[in-house]
Design goal:
single chain, 1 helix, mainly beta, 35% strand, two-stranded antiparallel sheet, 7 strands
């Protein structure tokens, strides 16, 4: 299993595009199928992030995360904010 620190390092190095897909390699399987979804307050950009790989379905969740300026965010309280996120295995 990949440790949390390795996932956090991968999250810090991703480049954001439209939607949840990000550029970077999965620390667990090495494939380039990473996704990051920030659910946060629109003004402060503070919330949490779900970060996973579509290929191996491993990832992490980070609470109290500030979304980078180039990352799209989803609002708190909207059921669609987490819709479509798979039940990935958390490498905590």
């Amino acid at each position: 299993m990949t440790d949390r620190a390795t996932w956090l390092k991968a999250l810090a190095g991703v480049r954001f595009g439209p939607g949840d897909a990000v550029e970077g390699r999965c620390p667990h399987c090495g494939r380039e199928e990473l996704h990051a979804r920030y659910v946060a307050d629109r003004e402060s950009r503070l919330g949490y992030v779900l970060f996973w790989c579509e290929a191996c379905v491993h990832g992490i969740s980070v609470s109290r995360a500030r979304a980078p300026e180039d990352a799209p965010i989803r609002p708190f309280g909207d059921p669609a904010s987490t819709a479509g996120v798979p039940a990935f295995r958390r490498d905590e």
